[in-house]
Amino acid sequence: MSLDPNFFCQYAPCDNQNLLAELVAMASIQQFQKREIILELGTQQKWFYLLKQGVACSYSLQSDGSEITDCIMAEPGMPVMPSPEFDIPSPTYIEALTDCTLVLLKISDVQNKAQYNPGLATLINRYLSRAWHDHYKTESTLRLLPARDRYKWFLKEYPGVIDRVPHSRISSFLGMSPITLSRVRASI
Questions:
Q1: Above 80 in pLDDT, residue 119?
Q2: Sequence-separated (6 or more) residues with CB below 8 Å from residue 135
Q3: Rounded distance, CA 33 to CA 160, Å?
Q4: Which residues pair with 145 in a beta bridge?
Q5: Rounded Cα gap, residues 171 and 114, in angstroms
Q6: Which tens digit of pLDDT belongs to each residue from 142-156?
Q7: Would residue 175 be called left, alpha or beta, if left means φ above 0 and alpha means ψ between -120 and 50 degrees?
Q8: Handedness of CA 12, 17, 18, 23 (dihedral sign)
Q9: Which 8-state DSSP code applies to residue 79?
Q10: Which of 181, 26, 158, 185 is nearest to 97 (CA)?
């Protein structure tokens, strides 16, 4: 499967064609099946994953074994990573909620090239800055809104995802029980 250089411009702007060509040369593409774990909890991150197609999530386990979904990734180009800190073990699991296609860049290669290529360093910083800005904006929104408004926000921010992934993941992400999600959906 070939990769269009403009893929790298979907999530963070970049008009440097040489840089885009370099990223394409560094990239590989990997398929993940629905429910496949992309990254295990406690595993060292070796790859910078970017979503090409599909829906993925980040989740943790509570002491009783229940899962808490803290992030749903559905936007093409979006980083599919548990943390911007590459030198620590993953604090969460990353799972494919649908069949996913990811673009992979080896973190060590990106870091080595970024030392000598300020354009690459800037682009990676843009990706990470936007991803963590979006993540914290989402967390703030979910903390402040009542259940009905959280659900409406989800439908707007994640169009079509409600019909593609388990509602248990969505209810966990929205901070409500599956029963509450069902009642909210029925009332709208």
A1: yes
A2: 71
A3: 19
A4: none
A5: 39
A6: 999 999 999 999 999
A7: left
A8: positive
A9: B
A10: 158
